UniProtKB/TrEMBL annotation:
Protein's name according to its UniProt entry: Tryptophan 2-monooxygenase
GO biological process terms held by the UniProt record: amino acid catabolic process; auxin biosynthetic process
E.C. numbers: 1.13.12.3
Annotated Pfam families: Amino_oxidase
Origin species: Adhaeribacter pallidiroseus
Keyword terms, alphabetized: Auxin biosynthesis, Oxidoreductase
Family: Belongs to the tryptophan 2-monooxygenase family.
Pathway(s) of this molecule: Plant hormone metabolism; auxin biosynthesis
InterPro entries assigned to the protein according to its UniProt record, in alphabetical order: Amino_oxidase, FAD/NAD-bd_sf, Flavin_monoamine_oxidase, TAT_signal
Domain Amine oxidase, chain residue ranges per copy: 60-487
Lineage: Bacteria, Pseudomonadati, Bacteroidota, Cytophagia, Cytophagales
Length: 490
């Protein structure tokens, strides 16, 4: 069991704050599963007292927040450090042939889940496509590939030294759902998805979730697979409860993406915002006081300054922490800025001249579990060509040659037809060097969560990190709507 791809498992089950009073159900799009024909968001009423707002960062959160503020009649300026908008939502065509494209950053959405995202796609008439990357997954465990059928076969499961309960559970459920075998009875206590405290488990912030699995009877092999030795049990139970409240499994099998790439949505926001978005304008310094904010930024070689009533910070915290803020943030807010942790890794795109895996009678949706390549799957399947684009991921610093060599080392078929490899090395990005918010470690939920969503004077905080579940694009749009509402109503 050693090589079970825990990073992938945790990422996929993790990926995607304070009292419920902050977020109203209508703002969140409701908790009910929404169909593709979800009605578009109603246009908000124009304000009688327009405010001047600077939005820091033109990722999906910044663009969405600015768009919502603009719709309400406020005067917004979005300052973006890099020469493009979209941040971690990045669709790339350059270097790929035959009209192929790939999302180097945010990739998939779910349903239910991503209600605001679906609403915006509908509003801007952006088609959503099914994305079969999680169908018929082949998992490489201890150097051997297993199909989904094999991993539901009790004879195979016995060989992993799982206990009888685990074996029975896994014959009926997907592998990534295994934690639910032990946590299910805990989850119904959480009634408000923005409030993890006060349900009787506050003390579990100091316990690792692995301890709950162990206490509830997990085998050594099961524990190794589920991990969580560092993760706050309260955080993880709450996270699983949020998914349950939203009607989602831990690992949604059916996922979707936007036709022509997910950047279609940031592009649509940016189009509406027009010249309000200023690219190549890194923020250098923020001053704030009871009546407003002053932001210094750079445009070409010149330093410039804008004054405004509010600042909506939509820059991920590690990048935000590099910007001097005067006077200093409140200690509890600074603690959040300094301690919310992120992962960061590289994306690979392999272009091949054919669907070579079909000759080998294999699925290309694979968890490869190699130190240099975690997984592989097909992207842009709808493009009408014999060529294919395959997406992989691995640690930062992996070269195209290393990524290809790793794939070829473990690919279980005879021969591939890969003709080129592109790598996007996120950790090396100057302004967007993080990827996704990590689980909260033991003892940190009580110090972090009560201060993640709160404004610090005239500075408000949105972004994929600033919501209860770190499901990137949905968390970004939810938090953006929250901040637009906070500033509008301030
Ligand atoms: C490889 C990868 C895979 C992912 N997969 C998924 C997925 O499948 N589904 C999903 O929903 N999410 C996914 N995500 C997460 C998702 O992409 C992000 O959570 C989301 O895009 C973050 O949006 P944001 O607006 O909060 O931040 P960002 O996109 O980081 O935007 C912040 C912006 O601030 C700018 N900035 C930084 N410093 C400054 C400065 N000093 N001055 C001005 N501007 C500055 C940056 O250049 C950037 O444009 C993935 C991310 C990555 C990298």
């Amino acid at each position: 069991m050693k090589q079970v791809n825990r990073r992938n498992f945790l990422k996929s089950t993790v990926a995607a704050g304070l009292g419920s009073s902050i977020l109203t159900p209508d703002l969140l799009g409701g908790k009910q599963p929404l169909e593709n024909n979800t009605p578009a968001l109603a246009p908000p009423a124009q304000t009688a007292a327009p405010k001047k707002v600077i939005v820091a960062g033109a990722g999906i959160a910044g663009l969405c927040c600015a768009y919502e503020l603009m719709k309400r009649g406020h005067e917004v300026t979005v300052l973006e450090a890099s020469p493009r908008h979209g941040g971690h939502v990045l669709t790339v065509r350059d270097g790929l042939s035959d009209g192929l494209y790939a999302d180097f950053g945010a990739e998939n959405i779910t349903q239910p889940g991503y209600e605001l995202f679906w609403n915006y796609a509908k509003q801007f008439n952006i088609p959503v496509l099914p994305y079969p990357k999680r169908e018929k997954i082949l998992r490489r465990i201890n150097g051997q590939f297993y199909s989904e059928e094999m991993l539901a076969d009790p004879v195979v499961l016995k060989k992993f030294n799982l206990n009888a309960r685990e074996i029975k559970f896994l014959t009926q459920n997907e592998w990534p759902e295994l934690p639910l075998l032990y946590t299910k009875p805990y989850l119904s206590k959480f009634k408000d998805e923005y409030q993890p405290f006060g349900v009787g488990y506050d003390h579990l912030d100091n316990t690792p979730i692995s301890e709950i699995y162990r206490k509830e009877g997990a085998s050594k092999a099961g524990l190794e697979f589920m991990g969580g030795q560092e993760t706050s049990a309260l955080f993880e139970l709450w996270r699983q409860a949020i998914l349950q409240l939203r009607g989602l499994p831990l690992f949604p099998k059916k996922v979707f993406r936007l036709q022509n790439g997910n950047q279609s949505l940031p592009n649509a926001f940016a189009k509406q915002l027009g010249e309000r978005v200023k690219l190549n304008c890194p923020i250098l310094k923020i001053n704030h006081h009871a009546q407003g904010v002053t932001v210094r930024y750079q445009e070409f070689n010149q330093e410039k300054e804008i004054k405004a009533d509010y600042l909506a910070n939509c820059i991920p915290l590690p990048a935000f922490s590099k910007i001097p803020v005067e006077p200093a943030l409140l200690p509890e807010k600074q603690y959040v800025v300094d301690h919310i942790a992120y992962d960061s890794y590289a994306r690979f795109v392999f272009q091949a001249s054919s669907k070579f895996w079909q000759k080998d009678n294999l699925s290309i949706n694979m968890e490869l579990n190699h130190p240099n390549i975690d997984a592989i799957w097909q992207v842009a399947e709808e493009v009408d060509t014999h060529r294919v684009a395959l997406m992989g991921m691995g640690p930062g610093g992996t070269t195209p040659q290393q990524a290809l060599a790793a794939f070829r080392e473990v690919y279980p078929g005879k021969q591939d037809t890969i003709e080129q490899v592109l790598v996007k090395d996120w950790p090396r990005e100057q302004f967007a060097f993080t990827c996704e918010r990590l689980n909260f470690p033991m003892g940190s939920l009580k110090k972090l969560w009560p201060h993640v969503l709160t404004p610090n004077g005239r500075i408000h905080f949105a972004g994929a990190y600033a919501d209860n579940l770190n499901w990137g694009m949905e968390a970004a749009t939810r938090s953006a709507n929250r901040v637009a509402q906070e500033i509008d109503q301030a």
